[in-house]
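User: I'm new to structure prediction. If I give you an amino acid sequence, what do you actually give back? Let's try with this one:
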Amino acid sequence: MDFAQDLKSQIDIVRVISDYVPRLRRFGNRYSGLCPFHNEKTPSFSIYAEHQFYKCFGCDAKGDVFNFVMSIEGLTFWEAIKKLADQHGIPLPKQSQASDDKTRLRAALYEMHEIAADHFRANLAGQNGAAVRAYLQKRGVEPASVSQFQLGLSDRTGRTLLRIFEQRGFKPEVIVQSGLIGRSEDGSLYDRFRNRVMFPIHSESGKIIAFGGRALDAEEKAKYLNSPETEIYKKSNVLYNLNRAKQGASQLDRIVLVEGYMDVIGASQAGVTEVVASCGTALTVEQIRAMKRHSLNVHLNFDPDTAGAKASERSIVLLLDENIHVRMVELEGGLDPDEFCKEHGADVYRARVQGAKDYFYWLADRARARFNMREPQGRIEVFQFLLPAIQGLNDKLKRAAVASDLASYLGVDSGDVLEQFRKMAADRVERTIAPRVDPARATDRILLPLLVGECANREELIEGLRGIEALKKGPTANIYATIMAMHDNGEAVRFSSVHQRLREADQEKLAAIVLDSGAAVPSPEDGMACVEALRKDEREAFLRELKAGIKQAEREGRMQDALRLMAELSNHN
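Assistant: Good question. You get back a string of structure tokens that encode the predicted 3D arrangement of the chain. For your 573 residues, that looks like this:
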């Protein structure tokens, strides 16, 4: 058994996936929850502990624990192995035995980001960082936060970090791929970040993968400069501070979403540790799904200016589409979260977060300011603006209550509002899930789960099935042939290993049979009974064929053939 298989045998796939998929529920031999790879209201994602396998019957995501970690965190195969081995305290083989070119590149990029972070922190802590430390203190950033968020300072000159990388032996092509170093038109290299307060951006697992830099020069055109996308950094997938916020988010069952790095630090200093921000991008579906792994409740606290309000409206739609429960944190005085915490104090800010209202009422206030409520046309426009938001409420009673509030707000009959909502709901086309492949033979439903599961008499079953012609025909013939070949080669016959060997169509057949959540778990005795039944059918089919051959020979006057077949029939009776 190679290291990957040995590692997988020591890992509980349910426990690993439960860190990413909240509220897993057990149903017999499987665990079920909302799929982390696509949006759904009814769980179609299942984990099968016995087979160390997961499958979503909605989006067809499937695989073993390595596939899951690779997909959910964007890792290579060997990075997933290293992550799981580290988490479970299992020593890794030598790096040369557990790596590939892509993994080695990514390891170099991670190392370069750690080197850069250490260098930036040393700059800030040194003599040249005194003025910047004073600036941060004036901005209300406490020394503990400087340390916690690993803030730093990039050099004024343009090639200091470049020289450090060169001295460490990194090749120019790798240095450029880090995103920390740029290339000018004449081909020379330079430090991308210069004279900026540096904010390290971490992956969800806590590795530094990028930086955000705030300009210290007032004349600098770009106030904030973020790392470009690299092999280890895809900005649409990353939320600033999620690596620290996820624990508090799971405990409190909420995430506070703000706009900027300083807002995160200010809120965190106020005791709201479950706070995250997008990294210089508009909110994306990938970022929402990252939050969903830790809570289905998001408190939105964007800046109160026009741009922030528009971003909030757009984000509400995206969050509702992903079945997130949205509340709005409202701060008076036109202040962003960081400014509000400084002016009004931590206790007041925490109270605002705790008292956040449903998003609908924030939208209603927006509508009131936008449309003329004194005119019938204005009320119709408000109605059209707000009605889609009601659809985002999953709870029927809450929908009815909000519709009633909307009717009172508009001065119309609540029944009219509910009727309009019902019409809109009826017009929506729900996504349908393709039916599972359903092989016809009942014996497959007993034999295949036993053959690829933890079955004590697997070898006895396989020997009993040898030579049965029925297994060489029909929709599952390739599956049985693969199992037989793997067994004869001395390979471990398990669901995941057999699944990997099959073509896609046969993978679907095997999954539909073995992972059938409604099927009872067969016993070894059931399996042997199936073998006996198949052998009996095989014998009866053979005898019928002999009898038919005798009659055919007699009709055609081939008496010698008829006598020979009669003798053979007698020997088998």
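You can read the tokens as a compact description of the fold. Here is one thing that stands out. Confidence is low (pLDDT under 50) at residues 428-440.
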